[in-house]
Design a protein that fits this description.
The N and C termini lie far apart (39 Å). The protein has helices at residues 42-49, 74-80, 96-106, 112-125, 141-154, 171-187, 199-205, 223-227, 234-245, and strands at residues 4-13, 16-26, 31-35, 57-62, 65-66, 81-84, 159-163, 191-195, 208-213, 216-222. The protein is α/β, with parallel strands linked by helices. The structure holds adenosine-5'-triphosphate. The site of adenosine-5'-triphosphate has 11 residues, from strand 2 and helix 1.
C-alpha cells in the first residue's frame, strides 16, 4: 500500500465542487510537486491529507488508515504527516526552541533531554542554532519558515506537506528555505508533497510533477517527462510555458 492513496475523491465547499474525481498514489520516500493556476484546488488537495479539509466522496487512505472511517484517529495521522504553511504559523509567545520542542513533548511524550538535543540538532540543520532563545517576531520570514520546517521534522513524520512555503517570503530569503527543503528531499526517506511555483526545486529534487486545473489532476508525470519531454495535456504545456518564461 502507498503512503497516500486517493480513490475517486470528491470535495465540495457547499455547492462549490473543489476536487473532481481525484485518483492519486504517493509512495513512501517520493518527492512530489503539485502545480497549477490559482484556485485549481492544490491547497484543498493537500489539506485533505491531514484532515484539515474533509472529503465528501471516495476514499482517502493515509499511512494505512482510511480517513472517512469514524474510528480513524486524526491525531495519529497528524503525528505521521506534518505540514508547513505559507505563513509559518509559529507560536508567537513561545521561544524558537519551545516552538520545536512543544509537540514532541505533548504528543510523543519525548523525554526532555532527548527532545532538547533533537531540537538543537534540527536548529543546526536549518542553520539557526544561535536563534534558539529568540521569539518568532524577532526573526525574518525566511528564518521563521526554516523554524517551521524544523518544528515539523521534530515529530519525525513519515510525510511532510508543504503549502506554498516560499510564496510569502521576500525574494532574497527564498533560496535559504528551498535549500533546506532540497536537503530534506535528498537526504531522507520521508514522503514530500509540495505545492510550489518554484520550478528549480521541482527540477532538482522532485520525482514527480502533478498539474491541477479546475479541481482535477490533468497531468502526472515523472520530472524528466514533464520538463525535458512535454506534458501531454495542453493546459499543462501552456502553464509550464508561462511560469518558465516569467
Ligand atoms: N473554505 C472555503 N470555502 C469555500 N471555497 C473555498 C474554500 N477554500 C477554497 N475554496 C475555493 O476552492 C477553490 C480551490 O482553492 P485552493 O485554495 O485549493 O486553490 P489553490 O490551487 O491552492 O489556489 P492558490 O494557488 O491561489 O492558493 C477556489 O476556487 C477557492 O475559492
Amino acid at each position: 500500500m502507498s503512503m497516500i492513496e486517493f480513490h475517486n475523491v470528491e470535495k465540495y465547499y457547499g455547492d462549490y465542487h473543489a476536487l473532481h474525481n481525484i485518483n492519486l498514489k504517493i509512495d513512501g520516500g517520493e518527492t512530489v510537486v503539485l502545480i497549477g493556476p490559482s484556485g485549481s484546488g492544490k491547497s484543498t488537495l493537500i489539506r485533505t491529507i491531514n484532515g484539515l479539509e474533509t472529503i465528501q466522496k471516495g476514499q482517502l487512505i493515509v499511512n494505512g488508515q482510511d480517513l472517512a472511517e469514524k474510528k480513524t484517529d486524526m491525531n495519529r495521522i497528524r503525528k505521521n504527516v506534518g505540514m508547513v504553511f505559507q505563513h509559518f504559523n509559529l507560536y508567537a509567545n513561545k521561544s524558537i526552541l519551545e516552538n520545536i520542542m512543544l509537540a514532541p513533548r505533548m504528543v510523543l511524550k519525548r523525554p526532555e533531554e532527548e527532545n532538547r538535543k533533537i531540537a538543537m540538532d534540527l536548529l543546526d540543520r536549518v542553520d539557526l542554532v544561535n536563534q534558539a532563545e529568540k521569539f518568532p517576531s524577532q526573526l525574518s520570514g525566511g528564518q521563521q519558515q526554516r523554524i517551521a520546517i524544523a518544528r515539523s521534522l521534530a515529530m519525525k513524520p513519515k510525510a511532510l506537506l508543504f503549502d506554498e512555503p516560499t510564496s510569502a517570503l521576500d525574494p532574497e530569503m527564498i533560496d535559504d528555505v528551498l535549500n533546506v527543503m532540497k536537503d530534506i528531499a535528498k537526504d531522507s526517506d520521508m514522503t514530500m508533497l509540495v505545492v510550489t511555483h518554484e520550478m528549480g526545486f521541482a527540477r532538482e529534487v522532485a520525482n514527480r510533477v502533478i498539474f491541477m486545473a479546475d479541481g482535477q489532476i490533468l497531468e502526472d508525470d515523472t520530472k524528466e517527462k514533464f520538463f525535458d519531454g512535454q506534458p501531454t495535456n495542453e493546459r499543462a504545456r501552456q502553464f509550464l510555458g508561462k511560469i518558465i518564461t516569467h
